[in-house]
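Re: coenzyme A structure - here you go.
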Amino acid sequence: MAARSKFAKAKSKSAAKSKSAAKKTAKKVIKLKTKKLAARANGKGLPRPSSKPWGEAGRALEGVKILDFTHVQSGPTCTQLLAYMGADVIKVERPGIGDITRGQLRDVKGADSLYFTMLNGSKRSITIDSKHPKGKEILDRLVKECDVLVENFAPGALDRMGLTFEHIHKLNPRMVVASVKGFGPGPYEDCKVYENVAQCAGGSASTTGFRDGPPLVTGAQIGDSGTGLHLALGIVSALYQRVRTGRGQKVLCAMQDGVLNLARVKLRDQQRLKAGPLTEYSQYGEGVPFGKATPRAGNDSGGGQPGWILKCKGWEEDPDAYIYFITQAPVWSAICDLIGKPDWKTDPDFATPPARLPRLKQIFAAIEEWTTTKTKFEVMEICNKHDIPVGPILSMKEIAEEPSLRATGTVVEVDHPTRGRYLTVGNPIKLSDSPADVRRSPLLGEHTDEILRKVLKLSEKEIADIKVSGAITAPEKPAKAEAA
Ligand code: COA
């Protein structure tokens, strides 16, 4: 009994020992796991920060392949930006024809127009007849290879090619399918839309121009290029979400929505009208009553600080000798001194922003008397010293020649084999670790062979068969030996 109890004691002692050892090991494991988890959480699952010098760690979108079905302006703006960011953009064009803009507004006979070249830089071009059975086969293979398909065809055109989202998703569930259309779902969804249609339908034109004139469209392509920009953001967001979900999705940007997004301050004013007149609009100061909708504001400043475009020295000959002048409240004293009206600093009619609102016409006329004695650049230099916000009206000639824009890569000169050197707009979005990759636009079908060989890894025989099929070029006659 005693021996047994001794044995039992020893057993329970060793059991307790091994229990505590196991507990210790378990604790250690938990500690290690927690440490690992904490480290991962700190790094958010990301690799260690690169120690490579800035700009030498690859480009932002390196490795992303884009199947680019875009044409004209909106879609090409989007894919050009993605190409500048380092994506491999494969532009699909109709054999023998290509993007219609290649031949529009031509300035050099026989060469791709600036319309095309300035919207399709840094891309590769492959010609494929998307309605040809063999062409469809090539496209299906490209869908499997690429990460994103971008298109801005008229509504239904992509489906008519057989490239429905369902078909694409089945072939490549990871693919992001991004589209620009004129309108979102609704009464106008089937309409074809160009820039100015979108500017009008998105609320921009009704709020642009002078009160006593018709609605105006703007020179900035907010419908086309603006929507292309929106689409680019949608695409990179979808790619980011794909990292978590593993699947692609549809991205849709309607031009009407894009314009409205850029004109949102005018929808703000529409709602403010219920609370009374819009005091920062010069029509308030002029005693002109407001109607039911946001009016055209001429050159009134969009924010709460009154501003206007004023003549500068030389305005009689130079249509761009003007400056935008903002009478910001904190620098009112400096403005009064500059224009020789020091008494306005204390005059109750001019001393405060509310007192000035009904007198803006008179105030800007006095400032203009001063600005017409100086060039727009002199006004800028003088005003900047006093923190007075002004903006010279720069012509496109001045912008093309501006050295600082060349230095930052915003305006870039590239060489082209058929048209020679031309200027293009580089990447306006500067990434410190991803320098922009701005190259000339491709010739029609310049990279067809390269893409079939290197991206799709087709054999010589397959390529030869495709060539005679008429899917990528006008049908070629087979060589005699092959024909036999
Ligand atoms: N192979 C064979 N056919 C091709 C092709 C290819 N590689 N690429 C295009 N096509 C065909 C299309 O399938 C379509 O044929 P379908 O109508 O028989 O289906 C045809 O070319 C024309 O395409 P579409 O987009 O209708 O061009 P369009 O010149 O008639 O219209 C727009 C141009 C811009 C008005 C229209 O594309 C549109 O509304 N796009 C959406 C909004 C937009 O982006 N607008 C701004 C443009 S800057």
